[in-house]
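Ticket #4471: structure output looks truncated?

Reporter: J.K.
Steps to reproduce: submitted the chain below (484 residues) through the standard prediction queue, then opened the result file.
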Amino acid sequence: MKIGLLEFNESMWPSLERTKAFYLDTITKRFDTCTVTISNNGEISDTPDAIVNFMGNAGWELNTHPDCPLIFGIHGGTILNQRFLRTHLEKLRPSDMLIVNCQSDIDILNNMFAGNAPALCHLPLPVDGTCFKPMPKNQVRKQLGLQEEDIVVGFVSRLLPQKNLHRYLDFLAQLKKQLLPRKVKGIVIGKYWVDYPVLNYQTSNYPMYIQQLIEKQGLQNDLLYFPANLTNDDLATCYNAMDLFIHPTNSIDENFGYAPVEAMACGTPLLGAAYGGLKDTIISGTTGFLMPTWVTDAGIRMDTFAAMQFAKTLLTNTELKKNMSAAALKHAANYNKETCADILCTAITQAVEKYNANEAPVNTSLSPIPAISSQEEYLPKIDVPWKYYKEQVRYYVSNADNKPDEETLVYTSVPVVQLSPGSIQLDDPAWPAVYPTDSLTQTIISYCQTPIKIKTLLNSCDTNLSRITSLINAGLLSYSHEKL
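Returned output as attached by the reporter:
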């Protein structure tokens, strides 16, 4: 069986480069391969048994469907490239295949197709168990200059507003205060990407914002920072030094997430956003905790109150941490190279077998495009606004609808800045929404600086459940079903 390789090009995303290396290593070891070339008139000269288009447009833009199945890696494109996909998906046939890395993408694609859909493959991605494995905590902490008795929480990611380094720093500052007299230290690993083009409300000045936040929170002496170019061995040393790995991502295309799986492979419990690929890789209550997420008119919101409750419990309960560490280690073993390679190769083989079954060549059909809501604009104007992604992101979050009741806790999503007597702004570089306010909204905000039961709020000011729900849906208030 000969597999044609198409569009295995260099990417600006480091994680995608890693995925490409896995594809190439797997396919070239298990199949005969060739590089697919496309003529000036959009045709291929020699037809292999299947064509794997890793990324890029070439396979989508062929003038005619080749006499073999087309297999496309999607890599989060259901969110970022939805317009492009809508343009080209109808060219596919049921014998073609789309490879995705999370169940959320499966759900989005299933909703896109009205009939004759191509096959969908959910491909988890591997981490290197020879590097990412448990190490003696006293040794790794000594290497990093950390004390064995310290509490250490970590963050590993691209340093972008939607990756929520600022939320991690808020968690660190709260833990530092609430877990006294023990010392709490943080490890941050990553690189700023100041020209990242997606939802770039405050991306360019994010480094300055973070520096000011560190000073404001008094964390200058509590953080170890490493750039993103660590070796796997050094990265594993850092994971092993952590008591808890925090991944509060709102990155809209978070379709897998290598770092959480690497941390689990080192036996480190997780605190993550219940979003996209993390809903698949983290088992909430077993390997860590997933903080609920939901869609609002002004971006994604998370239950950070529940997250803090979990973090405090885990970091003060030795038995719980031990059990979650063991569960994380066991679960991460599923993300080994052989298992993931088997899934990829089985998918390719099945696509070829289905194509060779001589089914009539019919094209897929798509469902109608969901309408973009005419919501009020709270976020700054940018070229591709939040509302363009909002309906697809609903599949990535954990809470389909926001239905608080009188026992629900509510609180301000983030600190607010008073811009004028009639407007406020969220102090959040990921979602810097501006809201018009009246006296009642200002009163509600004043009560919600800390979590409060809706029942108590209703008894304290002249409002109702509908008004509170509307403020949640607007993104001004967050909510939690946890108990105080």
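Triage note (M.O.): checked the attachment and the full token line is present. The first strand starts at residue 2 and ends at 6.
Status: closed, working as intended.
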